[in-house]
Write a structure and sequence with these properties.
The chain is α+β, with helices and mostly antiparallel strands. Helix content is 25%, strand content 30%. The strands form four sheets. A six-stranded mixed β-sheet has the order 6-7-8-3-9-10, with helices on both faces. A five-stranded antiparallel β-sheet has the order 13-17-14-15-16. Helix 2 crosses helix 3 and helix 2 runs parallel beside helix 4. The longest helix has 18 residues.
């Protein structure tokens, strides 16, 4: 096992495109670190740099106290699980898992011991003689994980391993990966664009955007106190409601707490449908435009009053006037109804006008 430290890591491609712009991350021994962000943010590029599949333009990658910038992938003591499984179709499950060990010249008895132990942990023992085509998507992904486990590496690297699975299987495999990582206690770095996957798996969450790190920390701490409007809107489903404090109806309620160019954020679940305006909080009149009933809760989509002062949407902000409210149960106001929603002061999030800085009230 080992810690992984990235110090001002950069990646610039021919032509001057800077894909990674000085990333600093420290993953402690045994931690499960998740890199999350939209497509094109650089998370997979960063993972491939740790693996040695991409060269480093600047900075250092340290694995277990050793800078590995110039170390070949095979000598970094890492194991990678890919999105597309990368199994050999003509080999059995056993041989797929054993292939890398045999290439390293390991004795066949030790190979057998490691493969059988990994198969037991992953519940693949009855399938060791099958070919990949005889397996389901979830079983193939477990074989790919088994191939990584048998190597007993210092670090596991996962590159969106669940993207090809259906929704139900993704949930099951997500739980299995977390249980497995805790059992093995191996340092792991996991890439995903799915914020729910990131929140449920991570010990430490790294939110990326445009080749940079927006925020690093405990998933719940990031959810409760996002550092930027990008993080606020990306982490959480539905996303946080973001609106300009220059809008007359909001500015008048916040008073001195609102800057001339600030942004107010309120999570959908922090709104309540009420006729009361909480002291120091915010209340908004809405017209209900859509309803989504998803079982134990309902999402209400409303538009703010039409006579309010309109402002251009800021980066990551919802369309002007749109507000999402999450309420428990299946009961909801009728589409077209006029309602009033409110949020108390402790549930308000304030950001600078450019969305780059959190303002503590």
């Amino acid at each position: 096992m080992a810690n992984v430290t990235l110090r001002n890591v950069r990646k610039t491609y021919t032509g001057g495109f800077e894909a990674i712009k000085g990333v600093n991350v420290d993953v402690a021994d045994g931690q499960f670190c998740v890199l999350v962000g939209p497509s094109g943010c650089g998370k997979s590029t960063l993972l491939r740099m740790v693996a040695g599949l991409e060269t480093v333009t600047g900075g250092e990658i340290d694995i277990g106290g050793r800078v590995v910038n110039q170390v070949e992938p095979a000598d970094r003591d890492i194991a990678m699980v890919f999105q597309n499984y990368a199994l050999y179709p003509h080999m059995s499950v056993y041989n797929n898992m054993a292939y890398g060990l045999r290439n390293r010249g390991m004795a066949e008895a030790e190979v057998k011991t490691r493969v059988e132990e990994a198969a037991r942990v992953l519940e693949l023992a009855p399938m060791l003689e099958r070919k990949p085509r005889q397996l389901s998507g979830g079983q193939r992904q477990r074989v790919a994980m088994g191939r990584a486990i048998v190597r007993q590496p210092k670090v596991f690297l996962f590159d969106e391993p669940l993207s090809n699975l259906d929704a139900k299987l993704r949930i099951a495999m997500r739980v299995e990966i977390r249980k497995l990582q805790r059992r093995l206690n191996t340092t792991s770095i996991y890439v995903t664009h799915d914020q729910l996957e990131a929140m449920t798996l991570a010990d430490v969450l790294v939110v990326m955007n445009g080749g940079q790190v927006e925020q690093v920390g405990n998933p719940l701490a990031i959810y409760e106190k996002p550092a930027t409007t990008f993080v606020a809107s990306f982490i959480g489903a539905p996303p946080m409601n973001l609106m300009s404090t220059r809008t007359d109806e909001i500015k008048s309620q916040l008073g001195g707490s609102a800057s001339e160019a600030g942004i107010l954020g309120i999570r959908p679940e922090d709104f309540a449908i009420t006729d009361q305006t909480p002291a120091g909080g915010v209340a908004l009149p809405l017209m209900v435009e859509a309803i989504e009933r998803v079982g134990a809760e309902t999402f209400v989509y409303g538009s703010r009053a039409q006579d309010e002062q309109r402002v251009a949407a800021t980066p990551g902000e919802l369309p002007p006037g749109e507000v999402i409210v999450r309420i428990p149960g299946t009961e909801a106001p009728a589409i077209g109804a006029r309602i009033r929603v409110a949020a108390v002061r402790p549930k308000l999030h304030l950001f600078s006008g450019d969305g780059r800085t959190r303002i503590e009230a």
